[in-house]
Design brief:
The chain is α+β, with helices and mostly antiparallel strands and 160 residues long. It has helices at 94-102, 115-133, 140-144, and strands at 7-14, 25-32, 48-56, 65-73, 84-90, 149-151, 156-159.
Length: 160
């Protein structure tokens, strides 16, 4: 039987920077259903949520000021600016996931810090938080043993 659990996606958008391949895309997360039904009206409830960090110029701050933004999406598959989504996880507890994403550090004043840096940090925090909840680090034996490893290519955990 197919799973109807919501999914966590990495979402890629045009960044507006065309002359630097490393900065060509804006990265964020979308939380949404595996399959989105057609939205019939603007009165339909949103099917997804976009979570990302944005940058705005601020006097005296190198690289500008970064801030977190979260928005409901009428359709998690067809946002006009969305270029692609990469599914990275099934969402077991959306409230917990959102708390982790919302609390991921947003760094300002570091000209090398980017939206993709934030995504990587937030995703790593989500994975480690799950391990903490499963008591993966509660004994010295576990702490000193092989570390948890998740293979996104095979979509399976290699080491618990």
């Amino acid at each position: 039987m197919p799973s109807d659990k919501r999914r966590l996606y990495i979402a890629l958008y045009p960044s507006g920077v065309g002359n630097n391949p490393e900065r060509m895309y804006h990265w964020g997360f979308i939380i949404g259903p595996k399959e989105t039904k057609k939205v019939k009206s603007s009165q339909d409830p949103p099917t997804g949520k976009r979570c990302h960090v944005k940058n705005r110029a601020k006097k005296g701050v190198p690289g500008g000021e970064w801030f977190y933004e979260e928005r409901d999406l009428p359709n998690a598959q067809t946002s006009i600016q969305l270029l692609a989504r990469l599914v990275i996880a099934k969402v077991e507890d959306e409230a917990r996931l959102l708390a982790i994403i919302r609390n991921a550090p947003v760094i300002t004043g570091d000209p090398n810090w980017r939206c993709r840096t934030w995504c990587a940090g937030a995703f790593g925090r989500e994975y480690v938080a799950g391990k903490n909840a499963a008591k993966r680090y509660d004994t010295q034996e576990l702490v000193l043993g092989p570390k948890p490893t998740y293979d996104l290519i095979e979509d399976k955990e290699l080491l618990p």
